[in-house]
Amino acid sequence: MEGYLGLFTAAFVAATLLPFYSELALVGLLAAGYDAWLLWLWATAGNTLGAAVNYVIGRWLMHYQDRRWFPVKERQLRPARRWYARWGIWSLLMAWLPVGGDALTFIAGLMRAPFWLFFVLTAAGKGGRYAVVLLLYALGVAQVEQAA
């Protein structure tokens, strides 16, 4: 159980604005014989909940948009809101990207995306990424076994 909780934690931290790569923990635990389905579930849950923290922080920061220190001015927010209204919510399917993906989840909160849709799209993208990692690992193992 510790392995799954460790993976959950690694995936959670990796989804925040802190740099971390949970795929390494996923592959290591898979190589150690942990169940692939449970690894996928724990990693997806941790990464999605970590992204939800980014969303909440982004949404919370909007309460301070009238302050001088606020990092984004209203004139900068207007075009971003227009862009996000057209493309933004669907870009959450790309929240799994190592560069920029975490920022998308933060911006979704800033732009007040509906949380349920944010959560579904983010979970789909992040779950898809972990599924691809598991598939690539399985294909690599099969190739090694075939070559031996």
TrEMBL record:
One family name in Pfam for this protein: VTT_dom
Recorded superkingdom: Bacteria
Keyword Ligase: no
TM annotation in the entry: 7-31, 37-62, 83-109, 115-139
Stretches assigned to coiled coil: none
Keywords, sorted A to Z: Membrane, Transmembrane, Transmembrane helix
Start and end residues of each VTT domain: 24-136
InterPro entries per UniProt: DedA_domain, VTT_dom
Keyword presence, Membrane: yes
Protein name according to UniProt: VTT domain-containing protein
Lineage, broadest ranks: Bacteria, Pseudomonadati, Pseudomonadota, Gammaproteobacteria, Chromatiales
